[in-house]
């Protein structure tokens, strides 16, 4: 029977866990309803460790006709319009991230900053940048994403 020279890695690194949470927060803030296990990958290193791959397939979809639910629950909530900062923080804390609130606020603040500053391509969905800015602003204000006319 073949045996590895080193014990297999059983967990990823803390940086990967934080980056995964930031991807969850980003996905909520931009309306990426399709973040599921097949859109998250690990890179296995030669030393047996693993790390989160760079993000991919992050696409805002809340503005399109759909059921309005995220593929994976965030803090126990599937309805995108009902997500709050509390859901994000609860999710991060469930993963053992002590700086949950700070990570969530930092990520959502960056989304708001970029959505407010970027000029979308003329082919983009009309109002997409405003929707994303509204989602992020609602989260930062402690409200549900869909509050205040920003519900898709």
TrEMBL record:
Gene Ontology molecular function terms on file: protein serine/threonine kinase activity
Positions of the HipA-like C-terminal domain: 12-109
Keyword Heme applies: no
Alphabetical UniProt keywords: Kinase, Transferase
One cellular-component annotation, GO: cytosol
Listed Pfam families: HipA_C
Keyword Transferase on entry: yes
InterPro entries hit by this protein: HipA-like_C (IPR012893), HipA_Ser/Thr_kinase (IPR052028)
UniProt similarity note: Belongs to the HipA Ser/Thr kinase family.
Record's protein name: HipA domain-containing protein
Species annotation: Trebonia kvetii
């Amino acid at each position: 029977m073949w045996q590895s020279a080193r014990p297999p890695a059983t967990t990823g690194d803390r940086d990967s866990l934080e980056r995964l949470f930031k991807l969850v927060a980003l996905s909520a803030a931009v309306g990426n309803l399709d973040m599921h296990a097949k859109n998250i990958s690990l890179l296995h290193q030669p030393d047996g460790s693993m790390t989160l791959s760079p993000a991919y397939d992050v696409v805002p979809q809340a503005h399109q006709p759909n059921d309005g639910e995220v593929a994976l629950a965030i803090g126990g909530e599937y309805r995108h319009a009902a997500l709050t900062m509390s859901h994000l923080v609860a999710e991060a804390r469930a993963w053992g991230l002590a700086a949950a609130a700070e990570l969530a606020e930092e990520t959502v603040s960056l989304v708001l900053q970029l959505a407010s500053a970027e000029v979308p391509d003329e082919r983009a969905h009309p109002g997409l940048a405003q929707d994303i800015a509204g989602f992020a602003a609602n989260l930062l204000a402690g409200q549900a994403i869909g509050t205040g006319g920003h519900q898709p």
